[in-house]
Write a structure and sequence with these properties.
The chain is about 40% helix and about 15% strand. By secondary structure, it is α/β, with parallel strands linked by helices. The strands form four sheets. It has a seven-stranded mixed sheet with strand order 2-10-9-8-5-3-4, sandwiched between helices. It starts with 15 loop residues before the first strand and ends in a 5-residue tail after the last helix. Bound molecules: 4'-deoxy-4'-aminopyridoxal-5'-phosphate. The site of 4'-deoxy-4'-aminopyridoxal-5'-phosphate has 12 residues, from helix 3.
Length: about 400
Amino acid sequence: MDGISPWRPTMPQDKLLLIPGPSPVVPRILDALALPTVSHVGPDLGHDLKEACENLRKIVFCESGEPFIVAGAGTLAMEMALLNTAGPADRVLVISQGYFGDRMAQICQAFGVGHDVLACEWGRAVTPADLDRRLKAANYNVVFCTHVDTSTGACAPVEEYSQVLEKTGAIFIVDGVCATGGIPERMDAWGIDIVLSAAQKCLGTPPGLAVLVFSERAMEKRRALAAVPAYYSDILRWLPIMHDPSKYFSTPCVNEIRAFAEATRIIIEEGIEDRFERHDLFADAIRSGLEALGFSFFTDARFEASTLSVVRYPDGVEDKAFRAGLNANGVVVAGGLGPTAGQVFRMGHMGNLTSAQVRFAIEAVEKTLAGLGLSIKAGTGRAAVDGILTA
Ligand code: PMP
């Protein structure tokens, strides 16, 4: 990764996009997106799709699973995971720590899938002990959790959930939309049956793809369901295309898939474990910079994800004025979702970010606070970041 050259916008409208997804897209991926559109059943797409699938399996540590890369976004991936594993005889447990866990409950409702919700207060995650208690009280065939809920910044203890689930035989679905490629998801070692994700966050591609990997057990479960209430979302219709794109089901989004293949190459080149470490390091650096500038954090420190921060304002700083000022200083962040609206801002720090961009962001925050009339010693935020980042 380029960690040395200082990052500055090149055009007045060029802002550093630090919302919690989409993340900034690097030129190599944009160039791949702009390649000429080729036949969706031809060898160029075939080559890129095959490589993207192989790399995706590596990214989620799944030796023999089946990847699916389909035009859509994270919500389609959620629907595909559910509809291909939960039949009429099944009961689903939705573990929810926020807005996106609740979304899975809404999808269950929309399709009439029997489900219960195990929720917790916003800002933390359901504990493995909470899950164990629930599993002793009722039987579930499918269990869903959100790895990182983008509304709260809380990261679920997925590995520990797997250990609790091991005895139950339930299909375990993990929503990695705000985690895959930034935080470990070791499918084989942890016994995860499906990782579902989207192109636009830690994977670093523009929005436009639903991305999933099904374990062999999840594939068996799909095959055991006679029919599913889905057509485009039926993975058995996509499976032949994923193996051989010269076959046709529905026209794959050629350019987006080629860009995604490039995005996965970048991840493999960086090194998957190194990429996880970089996400941890950048999260530490950004949080120490923000803390030095007087901000605090919404998420319970035991559950903080390395992919985004949900940030409370210092006294006297108003949400809209701060975000507008920060935008004018070149950085785009998101407001709070649901009950946190107006009280926090959400800053994504995932994907192909550089240390130069981290420094630029904290300097922009400092400049914004100064513009709002707060008295801060110049260089405070940057000094805190430099205490963590060596390059
Ligand atoms: N799950 C999580 C954890 C998310 O953060 C999001 C999007 N922010 C989604 C699901 C839905 O993804 P999409 O907006 O791509 O449909």
